[in-house]
Design a protein that fits this description.
Elements: H1 3-13, H2 17-27, H3 35-48, H4 55-68, H5 74-82
Helix pairs in contact: 2-3, 3-4
Length: 84
Amino acid sequence: MDQHFFKNIEKKTGVNMQDIFALANSLQHANFKDEKTVRDIVKRVAQIANRNVPKELEDRIVQSIINNGKQMDFNTIANMLNKK
């Protein structure tokens, strides 16, 4: 991916680019139909973004990903990091 893309995410979110790479690597072979896996990813994204995700919101995000087959990619991660 383009360095500019990651620098923009880093600038907008304050998240270190290396953390983004580590997260992206962990997503490559993740099973997005497994609730524990998805829940762990949501928690990790929240931690990296230094955001508090209430249990109800976490549950909705997890169910949305599992039930709707929503794919996790860089844009999805960026959107999750930018939401308050």
